[in-house]
Every structure is written in structure tokens, then in C-alpha cells.
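Dear colleague,

As promised, here are the two records you asked about, laid out in our usual form so they can be pasted straight into your sheet.

NAME FIELD: protein one
SEQUENCE, THEN STRUCTURE:
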Amino acid sequence: MTQLDISLTVNGARHELSVGPTEMLTEVLRRRLDMTGTNRDCGMGICGACTVLLDGQPVSSCILLAALADGSEITTVEGLERDGRLTAVQEAFLRHGAVQCGYCTPGFVITSTALLEENPSPSREEIVEALKGNLCRCTGYKKIVEAVEAVARAKGDGVGVS
């Protein structure tokens, strides 16, 4: 099988890899780079468990060919914390009990982080819209939305997302 040489910056670290032409980014992150916070569930880009930031934008890594990410900067949930400290979004998810089983949490945290970077004061409707690509079978979304609202309110008080 033909291998393609790519270069990725994942959570600030540069990686030179050879990937198969049909290898998905999720598999590269999980199996090759040990970024297991990026979950794989549906394999169709509809559940959000595999969401990562690709050049600052949330994407479903389970449907993105790794070769198409060549030259990109990728942030996984593991790359959000700084100096061993959780971000405001991660803290809010814990504080508001928005984690339940935790399987979908990394995708929700990544998507919420991207939303708040783009729109520091989203309305409830904007939060719900931004999170529509992430599915949760445990929480009913109420606590997740409340956690994002809490971070937005705190940002308004001068507290940052990261």
C-alpha cells in the first residue's frame, strides 16, 4: 500500500509520519500519537466524540483523512491544559456535573472552547446551535449548556477560556 509522508503539529509538537491513503486522523491521533482523549464512536462524523481543532476550527477527525491534515495544527483535548491546569471550560464541565460517563466530554469541551474563542458571549441558542454536532446519551445537555454559559459569563467578568 502506498504511504504518504505528512507533517502535523499536534498540541504544539511537530510530528513527521507516513500514513496510508485511507487512514483517518482519529486513528493517527489515537494509535500512533497516543492521544486517546479523541474518541471514536460513529465513524461517520455525526456524534462529535472525535472532535479536534484543526487550525482552530472544530472538525470530526473520524471522517478526515490524515493526509488532508498535512501541514495543519491540531489541538486535542489533551492539548488544552496549560502547565498542568485545566482550562475554564474543563473546570466548568466538572463544576456543573456536565461529564456523566465522560465518553462524549472531550468532543464537547473542544467544541465549546472553539465557540467561546470565536464568540465570547454566546446566547443559549448560539450555544445549542454550536453543540448540535455533539451527541450525549447521558446528560440531556442541560448541564453542558449551563457549563458553557458559566464560562461565557466569567469571560464577561474578565476570566479567559484558557
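NAME FIELD: protein two
SEQUENCE, THEN STRUCTURE:
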Amino acid sequence: MHILLAAAVLFAVAAANGRPSVFTDTAWYYSQGEYLATRLGLALPDLDENRRTDPTSVLPGSQAMRDKTPATIAGGRSPFYGLVLVLAVRFGTLWLLAGAQAFLAAWSICVLIRRVSPEATPVFYQGVVLALGLGTSLPFFTAFAMPDLYAGLLIIAVTILASPARPPASERFLLWLLLVASLTFHAANVALAAALSGMALAILAVSGAPLRVIANRAGWLTLAILVALSMNWVFGVIYRADTGVAQRTPPFLMARLLADGPGRDYLAAVCPNGASPTLCQFADRPFASEDEVLWSEDPSKGVFSTSDYEIRDRLRNEEPAFVSAVVARAPAAVITRILQNGLQQLMTFYVWEPMKSPARFLQFAWWHRTAILRIVPDMKSCAAVPQACDVRANPLLIAVVHIVVVMLAWIFVAWSVLKTKCFGLFARAQMRGIEQVPALAGAAMLIVTGVILNAVICGAISGVFARYQARVIWLIPLLALLIAAWHQQNRRAQPHDPLLH
């Protein structure tokens, strides 16, 4: 019951703002889910000819797929999250999705608190969720029809599954399913999970965990990644068999290197030859940002969106060779830009996209042909009075509150880790064995590492966008609250423990 109450707290923020929120990519996820639902034989009574005119449709035989163009974008949008989105809209509108995501977040936090702070009471748990609901980005992402929330939930799942202590079998299985789902919902989560799992296993090894424990944790984490990759591969095979065309992701790395500079320098030095002769056709473009390279419709600036299917396909085929050539030519410049982007992303975490009004989609006829208008609850009121669909919270005030909360949390976490030498993680392992290692120590290291890895991965692969870091930054205030509770319990129980001074 206390988990339902906590979920209600998170859900209340969406209700207070007026409605769950959507992003431009939501339409692409919906289209992917629509195809998968159709392929699985689920009843979709409203799948009529009007839906087949959707420019984002990936259905075989749809008007959009006649020139195969949607397939060049769809590969970056998960059909499995899309299926969740479709089912939520079919059976309960986005309110059902918002409620389910709020429950998953509340449950994950509850499991983490039980593992890290077994003495915590339901009152403490409710206080933590209330603080996160009022002072962090978490509730905005539970009500966001995008898979961003699952990056943070993935970090929690890996943290618990990789811990020396074994949760109950049912809890462990549910966490593993949540991890697999998170991995299938976004490709970047696979890189995050792989890197974080490696860190978790290294912590176990250094702190003296038995080899069987390390092997067990490595097996379950690896299995989750393999299952997720297999699911995506099977979907790709089935889709290609149905349509005769493979789904591809846009050339994100190519765009990133061009926007950062090393890619532009490479083109200037080698064109019209080099690793990507197709890209050389666009050497006169400014390449000012990765968004401009991929999505600008201006023929003097854009590359990907202004091209037909054949050129897009060639760009994607040439991307690996182009990336390898750029890295080989200027490795120091590439690494420097990755670190700069990662640092900038780490510090860019205000809530923006989840606070945009859905009424903006009504301004462009293109969106009227997509699923957006049917996805957003009560879109008719937005059409009648666009201002009525504005988010009720003040975006500037929310940004200031979140920045202050996160910065104070970072300072407190850093102070605590330095003061206690990460809660005596390695000293306890050497003195009394792995069983005596505080669960909070491993959780602190993995949560902090996960938040930093998320920034580096997103900054290196895509670009610096507030949404990418805001989706996980709530973990730092959560960690700060757990550490504060640990300090309080420790002062009562072990006031003279030399490992804590």
C-alpha cells in the first residue's frame, strides 16, 4: 500500500500540470509499437486507412513506406516501448502510462531503500518520495511518454542486482525483467548497462567478494544484455522479412563528429574521396550542430533530412568507416570533445521537453497526420484554447529549485564519500569480509558512476540536451537522502567506529 501511495505522489505532479507530456519522438515510438502490435495479432480496431497516411508510419503498405524513408529513422525508436505506448493509449490513454511509470519508479526506489537501508521505515520512504516529487525531475519523467525514465531505473536495477547481498528471488526476477525492458527501450541504455555492470563487477572483485558471487552477478547482468539484444535482432529480422527493407538508425556518430569539428576537418582534408564519398557531397554545409546535420529541412544546412532514401542509406553504410577514419586522424581531438561534451552534459539537467505544451503540435499540418493528436488526452481542449494546455508549473522556478537541490546533493554526497572513505568499503572488506561491507557503499559508487556515464555516453553519441541528464539526475538527491539516513543511524548505533572518521 505504501508503494501505491508513493506512486500517487509522483502521479499527482502530472495531474497538477494538466496532462502527461509528449515529445516529437513519441509519434515515432507509437508507429513502431503500432507495427509490433499488428504483427503480434493484437486487436486494434481503430487501425484504419487514416492511420496508414501517417508520415511516421512503418506499416508495410503504408503511404510513408512507399519510399522507405521512415525505415531510416525508425531504427532509433524502440518498438517495445512503442508497444507499451500503444497499449496504454488503447486501453486507458496516457494517464495509464503515467500511472504505470510512477508505480515502477516508486517500487524501484522502495526496493533500493530496503536493500541499502533495511532499518528505514515507511515514513522515511514516503518522505524520500515526497522530496523527490517536489524537488527533482523524477515526476516529470514518470509522466513523459518517452523511455527516458528507464535510464534511471536501469541504474537502480544494476545497483541491486550486482550487490553482494541477494534480494528475494521474486524481487530479483522482477528487477531483472525491468533491466531487460530498459535495455530494449533505448539503445543507449545497452552501453550504459554494459559499462555500469563492468564497474559493479570490479567493485565486487576489489572488495573481496568470492569468485562464485562475481560469476553469478556477471551471468545475470550479461544474460539481460544478451536477451535485450536478441529481442531487437529478432524484431529487425521480422520487419525486414515483412517489408523488404531494414530499419536503420540515423548516423548519430557521424553527425556528432561533424558538429564537434574533427569530422569537418577530415572532410576538408580528403574530399571528394575519403571514407564517405557521399558525405563529401555536403562538404559545403556549415555542420553547426548535430541537430542541424540530421534534422534541418533547410537544403543549405541539413544533410540527413533533406536527402532521399538512397543517400540516407549510403550515409549510414559509410558511417563506421567515416568514424574510424576521423578517430585515427585526430584521436586526441575526438577524445577531448567527448570529455567536454560529457562534462557539459553532466551540468545540463534542467527540465525542458517534458514541460512543453502539446498545443504546439497543432501549429503544423504535418503533425495532424501523425498519431500525436490521438495520443495526448483531451487534445480538443488544446485546439479550442491553446493556452489551456500550457504546463501549470513555472519552468524557471522549477529549474532553479532543481539546480539548487541537485548541487546541494552533489556537495553532500562528495563530502560524505570523502569523509568516510566511501563508507569503509575496502577497509571493511579487508578486515572482516564482504558480508560486513555496507550496502550503501556499493550503491553510492554505482549511482554516481551511472549518472556520470549517462552524461558521457549521451554527449558522445548524440549531443548535449537537458533531457538526457535530467532523466537520471534525480538519483543524486535520492542518494543524498539515503546517506543522510545512514549518518543518522550510524550516530546512534556506532558512534566510535574508527572506519567512519
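A couple of things worth noting about protein two: Confidence is low (pLDDT under 50) at residues 431-436, 495-501. Residues 252-329 form one domain.

Best,
R.
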